[in-house]
Design a protein that fits this description.
A hairpin with a 5-residue loop joins β1 and β2. Helix content is 5%, strand content 54%. The protein starts with 8 loop residues before the first helix and ends with a strand. The radius of gyration is 21 Å and the shape is globular.
């Protein structure tokens, strides 16, 4: 992103006040890259998850009970082991960096560091550690986790491997409205972000090309996480009517059961907002996420959303192969082994239709095919149960 572009105060925000000891913040960047060896496209994701930085500034504390029989060993080696032999409620405190890839052979690689081990620069919203930097203009870094480290630290909840990245991003001055609930705030900072650069994962190199990156950036913070969690987003849309690529995108997130969904759907010249108290507050919105068995014995997850407002109707459906998804975990700020487990994929496909009612008939305004969609569903589980 060009240095002359203004960085919003929301992008510059970092946990403050009471959230420093009872809160979280997650920043996410996702985009597609093309393999230099196979020429296949894959969707990557990089995340920074900061939780309770004031609780243990100098030592990263992972609060969940290790799944290893030797908890004392699993919490040793530079991590706080004060609680390894006590059945007490422990609040997490760390900066977690996630890097990974969706699809066949998908994986995530996690790195936990002490909250005091990063430097924050407000002017470009930069979070910089010894090996990584994330800002409003670019992201770069390298993470490696060995098999032996996972044996000693099963609480890392990731795969062994390495990932290296260096990409620039341009969000095209895009900034959608902030959505807030009683427990969290969320904003899609870039639903059509363009990324350029490279990613290397386990010695396989990928080129990231702006017009084919279909990038996405969002920010999410508060005192707790939604349960159940619902998210879909994408920007690779092609008109089923004209066959042309559309300047379009969508991003929807929120609490699945309470129906507190927020987001934006932009298809060609039509734009619809979902926001509590906003212009679509009195809209009729239905949504679901179900498992759909296929005739060949495989399984797909199906996200659906239908929006009715005035004389407009928007129908959105996304499907993702279950075999190409995997689980990511986020400890709740409250600790006590409470984990938000998110099943996610980056190869979602589907379609969106926009209708306008006229003389009690529905006129189809646009019908677009969707590819490379982010799609996620999660629930909070207590690992102590």
């Amino acid at each position: 992103m060009a240095a002359s572009k203004k960085i919003s105060s929301i992008e510059q925000y970092i946990l403050s006040g009471k959230f420093r000891s009872d809160g979280f913040q997650r920043c996410r960047w996702s985009f597609c890259g093309n393999s230099r060896s196979t020429r296949k496209d894959k969707r990557f994701f990089f995340e920074v998850y900061l939780v309770n930085p004031a609780v243990s500034p100098n030592v990263p504390v992972i609060s969940k009970k290790t799944r290893s029989s030797d908890s004392k060993n699993a919490l040793s080696g530079g991590f706080d082991s004060r609680y390894s032999e006590q059945n007490v409620v422990v609040k997490p405190s760390y900066l977690l960096i996630k890097g990974g890839v969706f699809g066949e052979g998908g994986k995530q690689i996690n790195k936990f560091i002490a909250p005091s081990s990063f430097v924050y620069t407000k002017i470009n919203a930069s979070i910089k550690t010894e090996d990584c930097e994330f800002s409003a203009e670019s992201i770069s870094g390298e993470i490696t986790v060995t098999e032996s480290e996972l044996l000693s630290h099963p609480e890392f909840s990731c795969s062994a491997g390495s990932i290296k990245w260096n990409v620039q991003l341009d969000k095209a001055s895009e900034l959608h409205s902030l959505s807030s609930s009683s427990v969290f705030s969320w904003i899609p900072l870039g639903t059509r972000a363009a990324f350029s650069g490279f990613v290397t994962i386990d010695d396989e190199d990928f080129d990231v090309i702006p017009e084919k990156s279909f990038g996405y950036v969002d920010k999410f913070w508060g005192k707790s996480l939604p349960n159940p969690y619902f998210h879909i987003s994408g920007s690779n849309l092609v008109s089923a009517i004209s066959g042309k690529s559309l300047p379009s995108s969508f991003a929807i997130m929120g609490d699945f059961e309470k129906g507190e969904l927020a987001g934006v759907i932009t298809v060609a010249n039509w734009q619809f907002f979902l926001k509590k108290g906003g212009p679509f507050a009195k809209s009729k919105i239905t949504h679901d996420c179900i498992s759909s068995p296929m005739a060949d014995g495989s399984e797909k997850l199906h996200w659906s959303l239908s929006l009715s407002k005035g004389n407009f109707v928007v129908d959105l459906d996304i499907f993702c192969d279950a075999c190409e998804m995997f689980m990511r975990e986020y400890e709740l700020p409250q600790g006590g082994n409470a984990i938000l487990q998110i099943l996610g994929g980056g190869n979602g496909t589907g379609e969106v239709r926009i209708f306008r009612e006229h003389d009690k008939k529905l006129e189809l305004l646009e019908h677009a095919k969707i590819s490379d969609s982010l799609c996620e569903f999660g629930r909070i589980e207590n690992l102590a149960d």
